Amino acid sequence: MNRYAHVTGWGMAVPDRVLTNQELSRLVDTNDDWIVSRTGIRERRIAQKGESTATLAARAALRALARTDLRPTDIQMIIVATASPEHIFPATACIVQDTLGATNAAAFDLSAACTGFIYGLSLASHSIRAGAIENAIVIGAETLSRLINWEDRSTCILFGDGAGAFVLQASHDPGGFLASVLHADGSGSNLLTIPAGGSRMPASLETVHKNLHTIQMNGREIFRFATRVMASSTREVLTRSGIELDDVELVIPHQANRRIIEAAARSLRLPMERFMVNIERYGNTSSASIPIAACEAIEQGRIRPGDHVVLVAFGAGLTYGALVLEWVSTERPIPPARRGIQRLFTFMGRVRSLLRRFWRHIEGLIWGTKSHKKR
Ligand code: UT7
To answer: Is 254 a catalytic residue?
Structure first.
């Protein structure tokens, strides 16, 4: 019997703090007209104290989970696609796993920049279709505002913070994930990068002084690359899935620049109405931009059961790719008791986490944590 991977839950989380173009024009030499005409962005969200990639990711995931009848313990894989992880290690996904109480899940981060959500969705869907797992959560989450040079007008106007999540479940009913194409071209790895803070160039006073721990981008080169691969990846994934362009109800592109989306639409000869665009309110949220746009498209009734939806992205790496979904999900009313059970499981997961930390502390006191150094 064939297995399929269906999207059964979706959720997004963005910080409350809105940063407008007018406010930015007081920080750097820019103005609202330039930003809107060159990018389509009017405002973006910025994480505040206490918010981070993991907290946004967990909020989005909990909202996605609340749309399903799953318990956190039913999740077997958590992928956090991010270019702004909580730490180099541990993985942000492990912190999310702990917050959700998803104690049976493998958890790891996926580094494919703005294409990360498509890479993650593809990986989780193939794992479900192969029979390796039943349920997964794929999250795109970013706090790029923490990695921006706020004096660099060519980058600080672009990026914003947020997270979006999909729950995937195995099913024998056809539909859901149909096909994906994933690509990389490392020869362009220097075009969009955070040079310092990794093993190649460890953080030092000098790297901080030179702002090498912030985003460095060759905007024009990325723009050229993006306009080329958005259309080609869309065509390629449609060929692979056997779906005609005319049968695609909605394209959800990575929200990097409205002009890039318009160029892709021209190249594909599709009207802009067939593209989901919300960049004006969130800016470029990297790996989170597609799931956030998807959540808003669903909310606006732009995706209906039976629709074919193409997700397409490009990003640092360089990475690029596209994915086709046949939307099968209809909102199923979840009984309040079910929701209560979900919350209880998340609560119990947190209690378990605290108990384990406490027990480790006690063990440390009993056995000593520095004994090997004394020897
Ligand atoms: O997720 C992937 C992430 N990255 C991207 O998607 C970036 C793709 N690239 C882009 O979106 C565009 O290249 C940008 C929006 C970054 C820049 O737009 P552009 O039309 O390519 O502008 P440009 O870099 O060619 O610069 C044109 C002019 C320059 O001045 P001169 O040299 O012509 O005098 C820039 O210095 O605009 C100037 N400029 C600005 N002016 C006002 C650059 N940034 C700004 C600014 N405000 N914020």
So the answer is: yes
pTM value > 0.90 = yes
- pLDDT value of position 203: 95
Q: Are 93 and 121 in contact (CB under 8 A)?
A: no
Q: What are phi and psi of 229, to 5 degrees?
A: -85, -20
Q: What's the CATH code of the domain at 263?
A: 3.40.47.10
> What's residue 337's pLDDT?
82
Peptide bond into 318 cis (omega under 30): yes
Average pLDDT over residues 40-54: 98
What tens digit of pLDDT does each residue of 315-353 get? 999 999 999 999 997 667 777 887 788 888 888 888 999
C-beta 92 within 6 A of ligand 1:
no
Report how far residue 201's alpha carbon sits from residue 194's, in angstroms, rounded to the nearest whole number.
10
Out of 6, 21, 94, 254, which one is annotated catalytic? 254
The range of the structural domain enclosing residue 362 comes to 336-374
Whether 77 and 201 share a structural domain: yes
Instruction: Look at residue 341 in the predicted model and tell me its pLDDT.
Output: 85
User: How do 77-81 and 106-110 pair as beta strands?
Assistant: parallel
Q: Are residues 219 and 344 in the same domain?
A: no
Spatial distance between the Cα atoms of 85 and 90, rounded to a whole number of angstroms? 9
Question: Which atom in ligand 1 lies closest to the alpha carbon of residue 114?
Answer: 1
Counting ligand 1 atoms within 8 A of each CB, the residue from 30, 154, 155, 289 with the most, and so the one to mutate, is 154
> Active site includes 135?
no
